[in-house]
């Protein structure tokens, strides 16, 4: 378990102090995939570097499995770091070593015998799907392949925690997806706690269980991904969940006053049941979708839709009643009724 | 002057240059590493005043003209070699003149390294010594080889100057036959031979540096 207690980090710059992190309190349970999301400059990279003490916090404490990291001696900190490994946006592979030797590297540091290290490295290359690249050099690989090698390297010392610092930010969407799938797999198979630092909501959405939103060095919101998505409370959270104010929040002035327009908000309803279609099938009421911005989070639907209901008042009210009767759906009148 | 004399002079110039470069590397490499590692953001930060002092000493040694430095280090040369004249005796001033230069070259090469790679090694629990020997030097090897080639050719040029204090080699022949006795053709031959040696060192160095760089796709 990772506990951050009143964690602060202040950088002393020439033109004054910069408070990168202020009083961060987070608890990351074992085996979780925990997202830390924020815009650039929010302090997320500093935060993740405080977890393995690449940055030394100026206040508070980083407690991992009951041990306050900042109290460790340099030697025991180095030993501890083998259990808390990290992957990076720029991969940071050793360019003059083959992939196999890159994966062997942390074991070499830890004093593992060469033959043993190479055997394990081959197993890890197998696991990340690149056994044929053992003797290739990083320069010969694509970005996604480099990150796979970096993941294999990070797993070499059997870590308990994997820190991912913008690990997919330099990759295209397809490669991002495959790397996230690999990380999720590793989390499930090996039970490793994963901390994901990102500025992309889609990454959090795809693999995280819980998320903390960082804004200006402060955690402004935290909770399960579903909660935050369904009901972002702070401006920072709203900005991340719906970057353009959400397409469903479009200008309403273009509707005629007697149009019946409603905003339907999905708050974790089952995606198995198609709402608009069943309204048509069961009640015979046809509505048109003006805009929709919904996401599927592990079979649950979140987001909102703007629907235009039939002009006839009775029919419109019947449609609203029907929708309100569905679980996880709230209906709010925008105009007309 | 016959072919054998030239042959021997080439050999003398060659071994003085190579030995001096080797000794300069032995002193300059750790010093260059120290300049990078000891930085305030380095992997082994040293007190600011110490870094300042090291930098000043290096700059002083680099700014003294070689001819004067040769004479200044006579006591040191005598202590190490036992004499201040002769081919072997020129190695000492050459090393003293070259090692601060080598240290700067090493420093420049090592600073090329992406900080992220060092950070990655730190995140895996590498000690500062492991970072130096397993990350910084191997990752910068192609650059270091290029730097050493530069050092070698520069030292070759310096070694030619050591004819003044009785050092052997092509420089001595150029000086004592070509200059003092006005045998211009001998001087020209010596200069051509020196140019050829520089060319040879540079070609081998460049080829080696390129071959060793795994960042280049085949």
UniProtKB/TrEMBL annotation, chain A:
CDD domains: ABC_MetN_methionine_transporter. One of its GO terms (molecular function) is ATP binding. Signal peptide: none annotated. InterPro entries: AAA+_ATPase (IPR003593), ABC_transporter-like_ATP-bd (IPR003439), ABC_transporter-like_CS (IPR017871), ACT-like_dom_sf (IPR045865), MetN_ABC (IPR041701), MetN_ABC_transporter-like (IPR050086), NIL_domain (IPR018449), P-loop_NTPase (IPR027417). Residues 2-241 form the ABC transporter domain. Gene3D superfamilies: 3.30.70.260, P-loop containing nucleotide triphosphate hydrolases. Keywords: Amino-acid transport, ATP-binding, Cell membrane, Membrane, Nucleotide-binding, Translocase, Transport. This is ATP-binding cassette domain-containing protein. It comes from Faecalibacterium tardum.
